Amino acid sequence: MRETWLPIVLAGLAIPILLLIPQAPDEADAAAIVRRIDALYRSESSEALVEMEIVTPHWQRTLKMRAWSSGMDKTFIRILEPKKETGIATLRLGNEMWNFLPKINKVMKIPPSMMMSSWMGSDFTNDDLVKEFTFLESYHFELTSLDAPEEGLVYVKCVPKEGLPIVWGHVIIAARRADAMPVWQRFFDEKGNLVREMLFREVKSFGNRRIPSVMELIPQNKEGQKTVLRYLEARFDIELDPDVFTLRNLRRGI
Question: What is the pTM of this model?
Fold first, then answer.
């Protein structure tokens, strides 16, 4: 999701190749699962229509947006609805990020001090949009077990490699044993406390790719709060105009 969730990102599965690498069986299985998770929403390029529902104990709102991605380091998101937020846009190039606010006709670069701030009032942060870490390359991982395992699921524990600016102490992934499709991910801090959970639901086909079309992010320290992403349309490995990922395009509006 790199741990990026908003930009829709190649679901190519290389399990047969992984199983040919001389590894212990558990290591091969864990590698196959994390590679599947890493690749699920990724592609050389993509375009998607996404609905984001933000729920809190006191209010609820839904945003509709269109998102484009190119490779590992370019993302563009423009809000289409509701009307009062139409045209607000976000551009990500590598680890840099800008927002365009049409009401004041201003482009704002997001400083490092605001990277952990909420994106558009959701439970996703600005940092979620610019992370370039993958489970396969940035974490040590192994199959693990739970006290109350669910039938048909397999669990992988991922611990960040030393020296990387990753905020999580570890991540537990639950995936279907049959096809390595993710069911949930749980994110823990360095003290082992559960911070947030991501649920994956409603697997659908978009072109020749099957992905969970709904992702629900639930923070554990905010009772009654969650953010739900629904992919309404998605196209992968398509030709995109390079001008999409420019500051000039950011300022254009709808």
Answer: 0.83
